[in-house]
Amino acid sequence: MLILSLDTSSSAVSVAVLDKENILAFQEQVMDRGQGEALVPMIAQVLEQAQKTPSDITGVAVAVGPGSFTGVRVGLSTARGIGLALGVPVYGVTNFEASAYGISMPVVATLDTKRGDYFTQAFDDKGPASEAKTHSANDLKSDLPFVAVGDGAEKLSAEIGCDVLQKTVPSAVAIGKIALNRIETPLPPEPLYLRDADVTV
After folding, report:
1. Is 31 left (phi over 0), alpha (psi -120 to 50) or beta?
2. Element housing 13 (H / E)
3. Between the chain's N and C termini, which has fewer beta carbons within 10 Å?
4. 48-61 pLDDT, tens per residue?
């Protein structure tokens, strides 16, 4: 199975093409805005690097959050559109799972909400070990000691002194690998927000 994997939910746009054995192409570009404009050209470039065409893709994997509201929507809408156009399945993967992928020790996947607190979920060697929740740094201080991983780990460490483990696998690659490992039990490509948007109409 050949997977196109996308992540636009954080401060970087990440795209990969991979199968069970190989990462055929990967690109990542750090950006806080403009993910929608950058994503489609990046997909074209990654497919070219992999020497593949869209018709070669047999599945799409995408980050479902939590993360930037706009970024999550951009990634999901693009993944669903590609899946519909190609007639292939779309697999959701949470940002917590992507942060903890490839780590065999207990960690707390920690994502910066950009609003003064953190999205967190604990993982052990079997997978998720707690529910996904939103916590303040003070809340998390009572859980010490623990090892944090994810885009909020270093910031949290500066606040409360938890240990930090650097993520070893790029986001889009981790998302694609996770999707490939659970083709038979997929997570739907639905957004995981954990909180309401700042602005409502």
Report:
1. beta
2. strand 12-18
3. C
4. 999 999 999 999 99
